[in-house]
Write a structure and sequence with these properties.
By secondary structure, the protein is mainly alpha-helical. It contains 4 helices and 2 strands. A two-stranded antiparallel ribbon has the order 1-2. The chain is flat.
Length: 124
Amino acid sequence: MIISKRRFISSAAGIFGAPLSACSPGSDIDTYDAVAERTWRASPPRGAQGAALALELVRYATLAPSSHNTQCWKFVIEDRAITILPDLSRRCPAVDPDDHHVFVTLGCAAENLVHAALAHGLKA
């Protein structure tokens, strides 16, 4: 008898008495749509200032694409500046031996940051 992986896992839960709540439709885990809505939410009102605005601008920057989804950047928030630095601990030397993708990724984050700043009346 051939059994699918899904059927095996669901029947194994009954055999061993271990509920697999993360796989059940009734779990407390957010749906994909709820997580996506939270991630891509509109930013705070245009009048946001200071640390709240800086954090929101960084949030937008982190939505940029990154090489192999590594998010290989660090942000330093200062009074009137946000600096983006490479996080070389997250690099992938097997597929990016010269760190080309790391720096392209930094450019993507910077571009998102610039556009978010412009939307709030700031210039980069």
